[in-house]
Amino acid sequence: MRKILMGSVMVLMIASMAFASGSQEPAPAETQGPVEIEFWTTQTQSDRLATIQVLVDTFEALNPDVTINVIPVDENDVSTQVAAAAAAGTLPAMGEFGAETAVALGSEGLLDIDANTSFIQGLGADRFYQGALRMVGDGSGSYYAVPFHGWIQGIWYRADWFEEAGLQPPRTWDQILEAAQYFYDPDNNQYGILVGTTAEAYTEQVFTQFARSNGAALFDGDGNLVFNSPEMREAIEYYAELAQYNPPGPQTWRARDYYLQGKMAMFFYSTYIMDDLAIEDVAAGSLTSDNFSDLQGAAFDPQLVENTRLSPTITHTQDAGYGVIVSLAAFQQDDPAKTAAASRFMRYLFTPNAYITYLHMAPGGMNPVLPEIASNPRFLNDPSGVYSNYGAEKLEEITSGLANIESFGIVDGHRIEAASVIFERQIIPQMLYAITQEGADIDQAMAEAEAQMQDVLDSM
After folding, report:
1. How far apart are CA 57 and CA 15, in angstroms?
2. Which long-range contacts (CB under 8 A, 24 or more apart) does 385-393 make?
3. Residue 154 · residue 400 · CB < 8 Å
4. Are residues 211 and 303 in the same domain?
5. Mean pLDDT across the stretch 290-302?
6. Domain limits for position 452
7. Which residues are paired to 150 by β-bridges?
8. Choice among 75-79, 122-126, 250-254 with the minimum mean pLDDT
9. Which end of the chain is more exposed for a tag (fewer CB within 10 A), N or C?
10. In 39-172, alpha helices (H)
11. Other Cβ atoms closer than 10 A to 417
């Protein structure tokens, strides 16, 4: 208990510093008299809720006219809970949830778009990674919500191998394919790359980045299905070729074990891999022979994190990244004092030390949407010691992927509901599995996938 209390006091001190260090932020909106608001968050883990409560307690101490009740809500239940609250006239003042959820709620008129847009403008739209802003924009200069944090996917690669081979970092289609071919040596149990080829979410996440880098999409801005296009076919054909340099058999994220055991040159993964690369205890599950019969297990390589770099953006006809943005949003309220209080709390959460305290709840999983934070010395000093293994230059390179993140589900500021259903039904990864593992004809597989997508549209 004493350790918990001391930890809370330390976070409280840090959070107090946060408010003091926020002089660069716009002046907060004023409230009129005491006001009580609810903050819904999808951070439901007890340790994260404890940190959030310390930040809330600190904010309340500095703002005695505002009381904030923290309500944890499972991410999968947000839309249902919001609908129930709207029907009862009890919407929270603000919430934290994924960008796609924010766009959906904003499109239904449940979020205060004016307040959220004003907040971004007051903080400075140019301070955000622009890809993160696009994920919550309505396409016309307004914003359904405020980007808060996110994770990035990209190609993690052995920079030392690339340098020794005289190869360029894997950023373009040509560079990626050249490296995959060069390092593919199955006779010595070494593989060029890991891309998903099983019928699951990981496969679609990896493929989305390639498709978007070629300008391919599922829908246009009017919601019309445009899947079966030359751009999409080219991306599928390239992906199938790249998959030849995978470890054998249908593969998923688990094959990261090859990389951690020194048997792979490149692999796609989110920033959640950062602690596996840096900390021996976390990496242990990938250093055994339990998951793959052709891996003998290996000792932890303390130099691997130093020798690893991330290419967060893929380029072909355009730049494309992939990631997930979690946003903060003010809801529509009848009482302007609640909106003002929510805005004030949101500004507090963006003051440097409060923001960093929040992000440190999940190193690698919560990355800043403000580039300036990635180089902040305190951000580099997370309690788990993950970031200190990377350094400022690498962290800035990693978080820069938020500048170009793309999605099949948000087009021109509109959330395409059918894209979520298509994702849930695994139509794209099933198609890629058939092509890469069963030898299906690309044109036929695309036609079948398109027919399934049309069925989804017809049923909605």
Report:
1. 10
2. 385/278, 385/279, 386/274, 386/275, 386/278, 386/279, 387/274, 387/363, 389/277, 389/278, 389/279, 389/305, 389/306, 390/274, 390/278, 390/305
3. no
4. yes
5. 96
6. 152-320+412-458
7. 325, 367
8. 75-79
9. N
10. 46-62, 78-88, 99-107, 113-123, 130-134, 159-165
11. 16
pTM: 0.87
State both tokens at 297. Answer: 């297990």
- Answer with the one of 373, 403, 433 that is the final residue of a domain: 403
For residues 8 and 93, membership in a common domain is answered with: yes
The amino acid that residue 212 corresponds to is: R
The residues facing 151 across adjacent strands are 324
Please, which residues have CB within 8 angstroms of residue 52's CB and are 6 or more apart in sequence? Answer: 41, 43, 70, 358
The CATH number for 230's domain is 3.40.190.10
Residue 19 has pLDDT above 60, yes or no: no
Helix axes 46-62, 352-359, angle to 10 degrees: 170
Residues 188 and 156 grouped into a single domain: yes
Q: Are 332 and 399 part of one and the same domain?
A: yes
Q: Give the number of domains in the chain.
A: 2
pLDDT at res. 221: 85
Tell how strand 35-41 and strand 414-415 pair up: unpaired
